[in-house]
């Protein structure tokens, strides 16, 4: 009992004081949580207000990444996890899940975040972008924050961690170091710093081990142990690293990380150089190229001739400018937009989605879309070929980091299995439906040619020699889109029905430039 002695009452007051203290702590924490939540919500509202034109907004690689990251990661860690843990939030939680269920909301997934990570990696790789520049929103050296967005310590951490998960230790470690730099520097936004130095080190140390820099991995691992002496993984890694270091001192060779097969290919190396503009034709090579106005023998075009700009003579590659009206472009995109699917490679029955081709596409059949007849006629007029054996029009859209790695448009067996009587793909006619802010050129690695998209222009090239044998010099690619998005439309003309329009020569071209086939 408490009444019999003051000492017990004193204890009661102590307990009461303790409870007050605990409640104070609770309120303070709740207040902090609310403030954090408020700041989080304010910042989202601000970012939502900033978005303006959506094509333009998501044309910025950093906006695309942070939007996905915010939905996959930040909401969970900043709002749902901490708040839903406190039990009085149960009612809110149920209300919220009910509301989300009602509108059938499915947010982006971890897979989306990985996709966005790989897109940034590809851009960095092909355009050789500095990590610290990209983190500050600078795509071209010298430009001052043109994207107006920069990444927080937590964004960089998430990127670095994801990159290490796919064994991209080199870029992964750079992003983790960037996260560390941003953690120690001025905090950017509310999300930062919700990542700790130890968390970064937990990924950075194994990344350097993956890169073969065992000594640095060991040193960083020790930094974890300085901060958390009983960190389980760090203790395990310490034993592992010290064992490896001891072996290394006795000259046991380590396994070397191998470059992926494709990056060893000559055409891939040339492709990245052509996309970056490091490799191009010399003025001497270009001096025989011509521009001219052509009516192609069609009366109508005497009044409004085609504007032809030669880009390569043999094999023949040319731009035809101002072929599509803006209104036609709008109609094409309007009709296809709703039916776009992730592009595949390979022949119909065993085609798959791969990193080789990252875009979405759909087909527009001429029969089903009579409004296309004028465009079809124009394609015949400009190429001088028949569309009798042509494919439907293919509409393609590439997002940030979207690309199509070097490939041939013709198929191996001259089209016997997939194209039957039509024969192989003779000529590619590619319409550019918009200008691309940065990147997205059509690249011909063996011709040292990068063709930048020009809205309304048509790019044409022959994939086959005049004897209809495959021309291996026509390997080509779509460079990754660095800023903006890219819309194109493909038409493939086939061999059949062109007998009188593109006659063969007297000799066979079979096997010419065969050495380029697998290069
Ligand atoms: O996107 C490009 O510029 C090239 C597209 C291409 O080669 C194709 O779709 O076959
Ligand atoms: Fe192609």
TrEMBL record:
One Pfam match: TPR_P4H
InterPro entries tied to this protein: Oxoglu/Fe-dep_dioxygenase_dom, P4H_N, P4HA-like, Pro_4_hyd_alph, Pro_4_hyd_alph_FE2OG_OXY, TPR-like_helical_dom_sf, TPR_P4H
Molecular function GO labels: iron ion binding; L-ascorbic acid binding; procollagen-proline 4-dioxygenase activity
Record-listed E.C. numbers: 1.14.11.2
Domain of life of the source: Eukaryota
Entry coiled-coil feature ranges: 23-50
Biological function: Catalyzes the post-translational formation of 4-hydroxyproline in -Xaa-Pro-Gly- sequences in collagens and other proteins.
Annotated protein name in UniProt: procollagen-proline 4-dioxygenase
Species this protein is from: Drosophila sechellia
Lineage: Eukaryota, Metazoa, Ecdysozoa, Arthropoda, Hexapoda
